[in-house]
Amino acid sequence: MPAPVTRDDELELVVDSLAYGGNGVARMNGFVVFVRRGLPGDRVRARVTKVKGRHAEALAVEVLEPSPLRVEAPCDHYPACGGCRFQDLAYESQLSAKEDQVRDALVRIGGIADPPLEPALPAESIFRYRNKLEYSFTQTPSGPALGFHKAGRWDEVLDISECWLTTELGNRIREAVRNWSRGTELRAYDQAEHTGFFRHLVLREGRNTGQMLVQLVTAPGDYPRDSFVAVLRRFPEIRSIHHSVNERPAEVTNLPTTLLWGDDAIEEELCGLKFRIRPNAFLQTNTAMAERLYRVAVEYAGLTGEETVWDLYSGIGSIALVMAKDALTVWSVETSEESVACAIENAELNGITNAAFFAGDVADSVAELRERSGDPKVVVLDPPRAGLSGKALRRLGRIGVPRIVYVSCNPTTLAGNLKQLRADWGYELKRARTVDMFPHTPHIETVALLERQD
After folding, report:
1. What is the CATH number of domain 99-124+286-452?
2. What is the value of pTM for the model shown?
3. Cβ contact 450:429 at 8 Å
4. Residues 6 or more apart in contact with residue 445 via CB below 8 angstroms
5. What CATH number does domain 10-65 carry, 3.90.400.10, 3.30.70.920, 1.20.1440.230, 2.40.50.140?
6. Residue 1 — very low, low, confident or very high, per pLDDT cuts 50/70/90?
7. Which of 206, 241, 307, 409 could form an SS bridge with 261, CB 3.0 to 4.6 Å?
8. Taking the CB of residue 64, how many other CB atoms lie within 10 A of it?
9. Can you tell me the mean pLDDT for 410-438?
10. Which residues are marked as active site?
11. Among candidates 240, 237, 194, which has minimal Cα distance to 216?
Protein backbone atom coordinates (compact mmCIF):
# COMPACT_ATOMS: atom_id res chain seq x y z
CA MET A 1 0.00 0.00 0.00
CA PRO A 2 1.56 3.35 -0.99
CA ALA A 3 2.25 6.01 1.63
CA PRO A 4 -0.61 8.53 1.98
CA VAL A 5 1.78 11.50 1.69
CA THR A 6 4.45 12.72 -0.73
CA ARG A 7 7.51 14.91 -0.33
CA ASP A 8 6.77 18.64 0.17
CA ASP A 9 3.15 18.02 1.17
CA GLU A 10 2.01 20.36 3.94
CA LEU A 11 0.04 18.60 6.65
CA GLU A 12 -1.87 19.67 9.73
CA LEU A 13 -0.85 17.29 12.51
CA VAL A 14 -1.26 16.80 16.25
CA VAL A 15 1.92 15.56 17.94
CA ASP A 16 1.27 12.74 20.40
CA SER A 17 4.69 11.99 21.88
CA LEU A 18 8.46 12.14 21.36
CA ALA A 19 10.39 9.38 19.62
CA TYR A 20 13.91 8.42 20.65
CA GLY A 21 16.16 10.93 18.87
CA GLY A 22 13.89 13.88 19.59
CA ASN A 23 11.31 14.05 16.81
CA GLY A 24 7.63 14.39 17.59
CA VAL A 25 5.31 11.51 16.68
CA ALA A 26 2.07 12.25 14.82
CA ARG A 27 -0.31 9.95 12.96
CA MET A 28 -2.55 10.17 9.90
CA ASN A 29 -5.06 7.32 10.03
CA GLY A 30 -2.38 5.13 11.59
CA PHE A 31 0.45 6.26 9.29
CA VAL A 32 3.31 7.62 11.41
CA VAL A 33 4.87 11.00 10.69
CA PHE A 34 8.00 12.02 12.65
CA VAL A 35 7.90 15.79 13.08
CA ARG A 36 11.08 17.71 13.78
CA ARG A 37 10.44 20.68 16.09
CA GLY A 38 7.06 19.27 17.11
CA LEU A 39 6.39 18.81 20.83
CA PRO A 40 3.78 16.59 22.50
CA GLY A 41 0.41 18.37 22.44
CA ASP A 42 1.30 20.73 19.58
CA ARG A 43 -0.98 21.18 16.59
CA VAL A 44 1.36 22.07 13.75
CA ARG A 45 1.59 22.67 10.04
CA ALA A 46 4.45 20.48 8.84
CA ARG A 47 6.19 20.06 5.48
CA VAL A 48 7.05 16.49 4.49
CA THR A 49 10.81 16.11 3.92
CA LYS A 50 11.14 12.33 3.43
CA VAL A 51 8.78 9.47 2.72
CA LYS A 52 9.50 5.82 3.52
CA GLY A 53 7.36 2.73 3.29
CA ARG A 54 5.95 2.78 6.81
CA HIS A 55 6.51 6.36 7.91
CA ALA A 56 7.35 9.88 6.80
CA GLU A 57 9.51 12.66 8.19
CA ALA A 58 8.42 16.29 8.33
CA LEU A 59 9.50 19.68 9.63
CA ALA A 60 7.11 21.82 11.65
CA VAL A 61 6.89 25.14 9.80
CA GLU A 62 4.18 26.67 11.99
CA VAL A 63 2.76 25.95 15.43
CA LEU A 64 -0.98 26.39 14.99
CA GLU A 65 -1.82 25.59 18.59
CA PRO A 66 1.02 25.32 21.11
CA SER A 67 1.18 22.50 23.60
CA PRO A 68 0.49 23.39 27.24
CA LEU A 69 3.87 21.73 27.92
CA ARG A 70 5.74 24.46 26.05
CA VAL A 71 7.89 26.93 28.02
CA GLU A 72 10.00 29.92 27.06
CA ALA A 73 13.53 28.93 26.00
CA PRO A 74 16.11 31.13 27.80
CA CYS A 75 18.83 30.86 25.13
CA ASP A 76 18.98 33.56 22.44
CA HIS A 77 20.35 31.00 19.97
CA TYR A 78 17.53 28.49 20.37
CA PRO A 79 16.26 26.77 18.20
CA ALA A 80 18.78 27.66 15.47
CA CYS A 81 21.66 26.11 17.45
CA GLY A 82 21.99 22.36 17.18
CA GLY A 83 23.25 21.96 20.75
CA CYS A 84 19.79 21.74 22.39
CA ARG A 85 16.51 20.28 21.15
CA PHE A 86 14.06 20.81 24.01
CA GLN A 87 14.65 24.10 25.78
CA ASP A 88 11.02 24.96 24.99
CA LEU A 89 9.64 21.75 26.58
CA ALA A 90 8.98 21.70 30.33
CA TYR A 91 11.71 19.69 32.02
CA GLU A 92 9.30 17.30 33.75
CA SER A 93 7.93 16.40 30.31
CA GLN A 94 11.44 15.85 28.94
CA LEU A 95 12.19 13.41 31.75
CA SER A 96 8.88 11.59 31.31
CA ALA A 97 9.46 11.29 27.55
CA LYS A 98 12.91 9.76 28.07
CA GLU A 99 11.49 7.26 30.55
CA ASP A 100 8.78 6.34 28.03
CA GLN A 101 11.38 5.89 25.28
CA VAL A 102 13.40 3.48 27.42
CA ARG A 103 10.26 1.52 28.27
CA ASP A 104 9.19 1.42 24.62
CA ALA A 105 12.60 0.14 23.51
CA LEU A 106 12.63 -2.60 26.15
CA VAL A 107 9.11 -3.73 25.20
CA ARG A 108 9.24 -3.32 21.42
CA ILE A 109 12.87 -4.31 20.73
CA GLY A 110 13.82 -6.23 23.85
CA GLY A 111 10.63 -8.28 24.00
CA ILE A 112 10.20 -7.59 27.73
CA ALA A 113 6.45 -7.26 28.35
CA ASP A 114 6.70 -5.47 31.71
CA PRO A 115 10.17 -3.93 32.14
CA PRO A 116 11.21 -3.47 35.81
CA LEU A 117 11.84 0.25 35.39
CA GLU A 118 12.49 2.31 38.52
CA PRO A 119 11.68 6.05 38.65
CA ALA A 120 14.01 8.12 36.49
CA LEU A 121 16.68 10.18 38.23
CA PRO A 122 16.22 13.84 37.24
CA ALA A 123 19.17 16.09 36.58
CA GLU A 124 20.44 18.10 39.52
CA SER A 125 20.80 21.14 37.24
CA ILE A 126 19.06 21.55 33.90
CA PHE A 127 21.45 24.30 32.74
CA ARG A 128 25.21 24.93 33.18
CA TYR A 129 25.84 21.21 33.68
CA ARG A 130 28.45 20.24 31.07
CA ASN A 131 32.12 19.79 31.97
CA LYS A 132 33.24 19.55 28.34
CA LEU A 133 32.36 21.67 25.30
CA GLU A 134 33.68 21.37 21.74
CA TYR A 135 33.28 24.56 19.72
CA SER A 136 33.79 24.96 15.98
CA PHE A 137 35.36 28.04 14.40
CA THR A 138 33.52 29.83 11.63
CA GLN A 139 34.46 32.86 9.53
CA THR A 140 32.31 35.99 9.84
CA PRO A 141 32.71 39.54 8.45
CA SER A 142 34.24 40.46 11.83
CA GLY A 143 36.74 37.59 11.66
CA PRO A 144 36.77 34.12 13.22
CA ALA A 145 33.95 33.22 15.59
CA LEU A 146 33.21 30.20 17.80
CA GLY A 147 30.01 28.24 18.18
CA PHE A 148 28.05 25.14 17.29
CA HIS A 149 26.69 23.75 14.06
CA LYS A 150 23.23 24.97 13.15
CA ALA A 151 20.50 22.43 13.70
CA GLY A 152 20.54 19.91 10.87
CA ARG A 153 23.54 21.46 9.09
CA TRP A 154 27.10 20.16 8.83
CA ASP A 155 28.34 23.14 6.82
CA GLU A 156 27.09 26.10 8.89
CA VAL A 157 28.28 27.16 12.34
CA LEU A 158 26.35 29.57 14.54
CA ASP A 159 28.38 32.27 16.31
CA ILE A 160 27.57 31.84 20.02
CA SER A 161 27.52 34.72 22.49
CA GLU A 162 26.41 32.63 25.47
CA CYS A 163 25.90 28.88 25.88
CA TRP A 164 23.51 27.81 28.62
CA LEU A 165 25.06 24.37 28.98
CA THR A 166 28.49 25.56 30.09
CA THR A 167 29.55 27.70 33.03
CA GLU A 168 30.12 31.44 33.08
CA LEU A 169 33.86 30.66 33.12
CA GLY A 170 33.54 28.53 30.01
CA ASN A 171 31.71 31.32 28.20
CA ARG A 172 34.35 33.87 29.17
CA ILE A 173 37.23 31.67 28.00
CA ARG A 174 35.51 31.03 24.65
CA GLU A 175 35.03 34.76 24.14
CA ALA A 176 38.68 35.46 25.02
CA VAL A 177 39.89 32.91 22.46
CA ARG A 178 37.54 34.31 19.82
CA ASN A 179 38.84 37.85 20.41
CA TRP A 180 42.45 36.64 20.29
CA SER A 181 41.86 34.78 17.02
CA ARG A 182 40.52 37.96 15.39
CA GLY A 183 43.78 39.71 16.11
CA THR A 184 45.91 37.10 14.33
CA GLU A 185 44.77 37.75 10.71
CA LEU A 186 44.30 33.97 10.36
CA ARG A 187 40.98 32.65 9.09
CA ALA A 188 38.61 29.99 10.36
CA TYR A 189 38.70 26.67 8.52
CA ASP A 190 36.14 26.32 5.73
CA GLN A 191 34.78 22.77 5.72
CA ALA A 192 33.53 23.02 2.13
CA GLU A 193 36.67 24.58 0.63
CA HIS A 194 39.19 22.96 3.01
CA THR A 195 40.96 26.25 3.52
CA GLY A 196 41.70 28.32 6.61
CA PHE A 197 43.45 27.64 9.91
CA PHE A 198 41.33 27.64 13.09
CA ARG A 199 39.16 24.53 13.48
CA HIS A 200 38.01 23.78 17.05
CA LEU A 201 38.29 24.83 20.66
CA VAL A 202 37.80 22.19 23.37
CA LEU A 203 37.27 23.19 26.99
CA ARG A 204 37.28 20.64 29.83
CA GLU A 205 36.40 21.74 33.33
CA GLY A 206 36.86 20.04 36.67
CA ARG A 207 33.51 21.05 38.13
CA ASN A 208 34.47 20.02 41.66
CA THR A 209 38.03 21.36 41.51
CA GLY A 210 37.63 24.51 39.40
CA GLN A 211 40.49 23.48 37.06
CA MET A 212 40.24 24.04 33.31
CA LEU A 213 41.98 22.40 30.32
CA VAL A 214 42.08 24.12 26.91
CA GLN A 215 42.78 22.41 23.58
CA LEU A 216 43.10 24.41 20.35
CA VAL A 217 42.69 22.43 17.12
CA THR A 218 44.01 23.94 13.89
CA ALA A 219 45.08 23.06 10.38
CA PRO A 220 48.86 22.81 9.83
CA GLY A 221 50.68 26.13 9.98
CA ASP A 222 52.20 28.76 12.22
CA TYR A 223 50.32 30.93 14.68
CA PRO A 224 51.23 33.32 17.54
CA ARG A 225 51.54 30.68 20.20
CA ASP A 226 52.96 32.93 22.90
CA SER A 227 50.11 35.41 22.70
CA PHE A 228 47.56 32.55 22.78
CA VAL A 229 49.08 31.22 26.00
CA ALA A 230 49.31 34.72 27.45
CA VAL A 231 45.59 35.35 26.87
CA LEU A 232 44.64 32.11 28.59
CA ARG A 233 46.99 32.56 31.53
CA ARG A 234 44.86 35.51 32.60
CA PHE A 235 42.39 32.90 33.85
CA PRO A 236 43.80 31.36 37.05
CA GLU A 237 41.50 28.35 36.66
CA ILE A 238 43.31 27.24 33.48
CA ARG A 239 45.96 24.67 34.40
CA SER A 240 46.63 22.96 31.06
CA ILE A 241 46.90 24.35 27.49
CA HIS A 242 47.26 22.04 24.47
CA HIS A 243 47.45 22.35 20.68
CA SER A 244 46.45 19.74 18.09
CA VAL A 245 46.89 19.70 14.33
CA ASN A 246 44.19 18.16 12.15
CA GLU A 247 45.50 17.52 8.63
CA ARG A 248 42.36 15.71 7.43
CA PRO A 249 38.99 17.04 6.23
CA ALA A 250 37.09 15.15 8.95
CA GLU A 251 35.90 17.28 11.85
CA VAL A 252 37.56 15.56 14.81
CA THR A 253 39.16 16.68 18.06
CA ASN A 254 40.39 13.33 19.39
CA LEU A 255 43.94 13.98 18.20
CA PRO A 256 47.51 13.86 19.54
CA THR A 257 48.30 17.05 21.44
CA THR A 258 51.31 19.22 22.14
CA LEU A 259 51.43 20.72 25.63
CA LEU A 260 51.88 24.48 25.31
CA TRP A 261 51.80 25.40 28.98
CA GLY A 262 51.02 24.00 32.42
CA ASP A 263 50.30 20.46 33.55
CA ASP A 264 49.49 17.77 31.01
CA ALA A 265 46.20 17.05 32.80
CA ILE A 266 43.68 18.57 35.17
CA GLU A 267 42.13 16.96 38.24
CA GLU A 268 38.50 16.26 39.01
CA GLU A 269 36.87 14.75 42.10
CA LEU A 270 34.10 12.17 41.87
CA CYS A 271 32.55 10.12 44.68
CA GLY A 272 35.37 11.11 47.03
CA LEU A 273 38.12 10.09 44.58
CA LYS A 274 40.54 12.17 42.51
CA PHE A 275 40.87 11.73 38.75
CA ARG A 276 43.42 13.15 36.34
CA ILE A 277 41.94 14.04 32.96
CA ARG A 278 43.94 14.54 29.76
CA PRO A 279 42.58 16.02 26.51
CA ASN A 280 41.37 12.75 24.93
CA ALA A 281 40.40 10.79 28.03
CA PHE A 282 36.73 9.83 28.39
CA LEU A 283 34.70 11.07 31.34
CA GLN A 284 30.94 11.55 31.56
CA THR A 285 30.26 15.17 30.62
CA ASN A 286 27.85 15.88 33.50
CA THR A 287 29.89 15.63 36.70
CA ALA A 288 27.06 15.83 39.21
CA MET A 289 24.96 13.23 37.44
CA ALA A 290 27.97 10.99 36.80
CA GLU A 291 28.28 10.63 40.57
CA ARG A 292 24.61 9.64 40.82
CA LEU A 293 24.93 7.22 37.89
CA TYR A 294 27.95 5.55 39.52
CA ARG A 295 26.03 5.15 42.77
CA VAL A 296 23.22 3.39 40.91
CA ALA A 297 25.77 1.11 39.22
CA VAL A 298 27.37 0.28 42.60
CA GLU A 299 23.96 -0.45 44.11
CA TYR A 300 23.03 -2.76 41.22
CA ALA A 301 26.39 -4.57 41.44
CA GLY A 302 25.55 -5.63 45.02
CA LEU A 303 29.17 -6.08 46.04
CA THR A 304 30.15 -7.70 49.34
CA GLY A 305 33.94 -7.44 49.11
CA GLU A 306 34.41 -11.01 47.82
CA GLU A 307 33.77 -10.45 44.10
CA THR A 308 36.04 -10.34 41.09
CA VAL A 309 34.64 -7.53 38.94
CA TRP A 310 35.26 -6.77 35.29
CA ASP A 311 34.77 -3.22 34.03
CA LEU A 312 34.60 -3.29 30.24
CA TYR A 313 34.84 -0.02 28.26
CA SER A 314 36.28 1.52 31.41
CA GLY A 315 37.41 4.98 30.23
CA ILE A 316 39.67 6.61 32.81
CA GLY A 317 38.67 4.01 35.39
CA SER A 318 36.01 6.05 37.17
CA ILE A 319 33.46 3.24 37.71
CA ALA A 320 36.19 0.67 38.40
CA LEU A 321 37.83 2.79 41.08
CA VAL A 322 34.51 3.71 42.70
CA MET A 323 33.68 -0.01 42.93
CA ALA A 324 37.16 -1.13 44.02
CA LYS A 325 36.60 -0.41 47.72
CA ASP A 326 33.66 -2.85 47.78
CA ALA A 327 35.22 -5.58 45.59
CA LEU A 328 37.96 -8.17 45.95
CA THR A 329 39.56 -7.14 42.64
CA VAL A 330 38.54 -5.06 39.61
CA TRP A 331 39.88 -5.79 36.11
CA SER A 332 39.28 -3.22 33.38
CA VAL A 333 39.60 -3.04 29.59
CA GLU A 334 39.50 0.12 27.48
CA THR A 335 40.42 0.75 23.83
CA SER A 336 41.97 4.20 24.41
CA GLU A 337 45.57 3.92 25.57
CA GLU A 338 45.45 7.50 26.85
CA SER A 339 42.43 6.68 29.01
CA VAL A 340 44.16 3.55 30.35
CA ALA A 341 47.21 5.63 31.26
CA CYS A 342 44.91 7.99 33.14
CA ALA A 343 43.20 5.05 34.88
CA ILE A 344 46.51 3.60 36.12
CA GLU A 345 47.57 7.04 37.30
CA ASN A 346 44.21 7.55 39.00
CA ALA A 347 44.52 4.27 40.88
CA GLU A 348 47.95 5.33 42.17
CA LEU A 349 46.64 8.82 42.99
CA ASN A 350 43.95 7.31 45.22
CA GLY A 351 46.09 4.55 46.73
CA ILE A 352 43.92 1.82 45.18
CA THR A 353 45.86 -1.41 44.71
CA ASN A 354 43.16 -3.94 43.82
CA ALA A 355 42.35 -2.57 40.34
CA ALA A 356 44.16 -3.40 37.09
CA PHE A 357 43.77 -1.73 33.71
CA PHE A 358 44.50 -2.98 30.19
CA ALA A 359 44.32 -1.42 26.74
CA GLY A 360 42.65 -3.45 24.02
CA ASP A 361 39.51 -4.35 22.14
CA VAL A 362 36.93 -5.74 24.54
CA ALA A 363 35.89 -8.70 22.37
CA ASP A 364 39.50 -9.74 21.80
CA SER A 365 40.52 -9.26 25.44
CA VAL A 366 37.96 -11.43 27.22
CA ALA A 367 39.90 -14.71 26.99
CA GLU A 368 43.17 -13.23 28.22
CA LEU A 369 41.38 -11.30 30.96
CA ARG A 370 39.79 -14.53 32.17
CA GLU A 371 43.20 -16.23 32.32
CA ARG A 372 44.54 -13.39 34.46
CA SER A 373 41.61 -12.82 36.80
CA GLY A 374 39.61 -16.04 36.82
CA ASP A 375 35.84 -16.04 36.39
CA PRO A 376 34.18 -12.74 37.32
CA LYS A 377 31.15 -12.54 39.59
CA VAL A 378 30.06 -9.14 38.23
CA VAL A 379 30.68 -7.52 34.84
CA VAL A 380 30.10 -3.79 34.34
CA LEU A 381 29.54 -2.71 30.74
CA ASP A 382 29.62 0.89 29.51
CA PRO A 383 29.83 0.44 25.72
CA PRO A 384 29.65 3.13 23.03
CA ARG A 385 26.35 4.13 21.43
CA ALA A 386 26.40 1.13 19.08
CA GLY A 387 26.25 -1.22 22.07
CA LEU A 388 28.04 -4.56 22.39
CA SER A 389 29.29 -6.07 19.16
CA GLY A 390 28.07 -9.57 18.35
CA LYS A 391 31.51 -11.01 19.06
CA ALA A 392 31.85 -9.26 22.41
CA LEU A 393 28.37 -10.35 23.44
CA ARG A 394 28.96 -14.00 22.52
CA ARG A 395 32.29 -14.18 24.33
CA LEU A 396 30.81 -12.56 27.40
CA GLY A 397 27.80 -14.87 27.27
CA ARG A 398 29.98 -18.00 27.21
CA ILE A 399 31.62 -17.00 30.49
CA GLY A 400 28.28 -17.13 32.28
CA VAL A 401 28.92 -14.31 34.76
CA PRO A 402 26.10 -14.29 37.36
CA ARG A 403 25.46 -10.53 37.25
CA ILE A 404 25.85 -7.84 34.57
CA VAL A 405 25.50 -4.11 35.21
CA TYR A 406 24.95 -2.48 31.83
CA VAL A 407 25.40 1.31 31.57
CA SER A 408 23.85 2.38 28.27
CA CYS A 409 23.76 5.63 26.31
CA ASN A 410 21.32 4.24 23.71
CA PRO A 411 18.12 2.46 24.78
CA THR A 412 17.62 0.82 21.38
CA THR A 413 20.99 -0.94 21.37
CA LEU A 414 20.57 -1.74 25.07
CA ALA A 415 17.26 -3.43 24.27
CA GLY A 416 18.77 -5.34 21.35
CA ASN A 417 21.66 -6.60 23.48
CA LEU A 418 19.26 -7.58 26.28
CA LYS A 419 17.11 -9.54 23.85
CA GLN A 420 20.10 -11.56 22.70
CA LEU A 421 21.43 -12.08 26.22
CA ARG A 422 18.01 -13.41 27.26
CA ALA A 423 17.48 -15.65 24.25
CA ASP A 424 20.98 -17.10 23.90
CA TRP A 425 22.51 -16.95 27.37
CA GLY A 426 19.69 -17.09 29.90
CA TYR A 427 19.84 -13.59 31.39
CA GLU A 428 16.84 -11.72 32.76
CA LEU A 429 16.46 -7.99 33.32
CA LYS A 430 15.96 -7.45 37.07
CA ARG A 431 16.21 -3.67 37.45
CA ALA A 432 16.63 -0.63 35.21
CA ARG A 433 16.76 3.10 35.78
CA THR A 434 17.01 6.11 33.50
CA VAL A 435 19.53 8.75 34.64
CA ASP A 436 19.11 12.12 32.95
CA MET A 437 22.63 13.30 32.21
CA PHE A 438 21.72 15.64 29.35
CA PRO A 439 18.68 17.90 29.84
CA HIS A 440 17.31 19.60 26.69
CA THR A 441 18.84 16.93 24.45
CA PRO A 442 17.54 13.55 23.22
CA HIS A 443 20.43 11.66 24.84
CA ILE A 444 19.49 9.03 27.42
CA GLU A 445 21.57 7.10 29.97
CA THR A 446 20.16 3.93 31.48
CA VAL A 447 21.58 1.55 34.09
CA ALA A 448 20.32 -2.03 33.86
CA LEU A 449 20.90 -5.09 36.05
CA LEU A 450 20.85 -8.52 34.42
CA GLU A 451 21.09 -11.81 36.27
CA ARG A 452 21.71 -15.22 34.78
CA GLN A 453 18.99 -17.74 35.51
CA ASP A 454 19.99 -21.30 36.44
Report:
1. 3.40.50.150
2. 0.93
3. yes
4. 289, 293, 407, 408, 409, 434, 435, 436, 437, 438
5. 2.40.50.140
6. low
7. 241
8. 12
9. 97
10. 409
11. 240
